[in-house]
Amino acid sequence: MPITLARVDQRLIHGITVNQWNKVLHPKRFMVIDQEASSNEMIKASMRMSKPAGTGMSIIDEKKAIDHFKAGKYDDHTVFLIVKEPAIILDLINAGIEVPKVNVGALFEEGDRKPYTKRVALDDKELSDLKAIAAKGIPVFFEYTPDDNDEVSLEDVLKGKGED
């Protein structure tokens, strides 16, 4: 299975994703799936500069990612998938792409989002998408860095907010 972890992080590529998570996951490829980033050469260039030596980085849109996974392009890779919203992960799963687990790292409190953890705020659609992923038997957990050792399941986060 190419994907080792899928992470939802509004900032996509930054020090925590390329340094701390890299040390734990040892991916062969970082994959950012984002329409805006994939169509902006300046953003792509700056993201690629941050990748650790010896790793690849793909910054592509959702359709291209699904096509490439289905074609087996990443079958011999370990992929750390990073997206801004859980809907993209749900779309990949619904397209038949295997995602072993989903980490929710950082989503800022803005717009209709309300806080669920110290670093994660969700709107109704994001919460619904995470619940749909979990309903498919895929673990969804909240953890900012792997060094925090404070992985909390979606179920526990919802219980803490009086939701289920």
From TrEMBL:
GO BP: any one term: phosphoenolpyruvate-dependent sugar phosphotransferase system
Subcellular location(s) of the protein: Cytoplasm
Organism domain of life: Bacteria
Keywords: Cytoplasm, Kinase, Phosphotransferase system, Sugar transport, Transferase, Transport
Gene Ontology annotations for the cellular component aspect, listed alphabetically: cytoplasm
Major subcellular site: cytoplasm
GO terms of molecular function: kinase activity; protein-N(PI)-phosphohistidine-sugar phosphotransferase activity
Domain PTS EIIB type-4, chain residue ranges per copy: 1-164
Protein name (record): PTS mannose transporter subunit IIC
Organism: Lactobacillus helveticus (Lactobacillus suntoryeus)
Lineage of producing organism: Bacteria, Bacillati, Bacillota, Bacilli, Lactobacillales
